[in-house]
Amino acid sequence: MSPILVRPVREQLEHDRIIRLLQSRTKRRVDAVINPGAEQNAAVGTGPKAVYPDVVLYSTERGRKLQGVVEVETGESVNHLEALAQWAHLSRLKVPFHLYVPAPAIDVARRLASDYQIEVAELWIYDSIGDQVRFTLVHRLPVTARRPAAAPAATRGAQPRAVGRRKPPAPVRTTSKTAGKRAAPSPARKAAPARKRAAKPAGKGSAQKRK
Question: Does any domain span residue 18?
Answer without folding.
Answer: yes
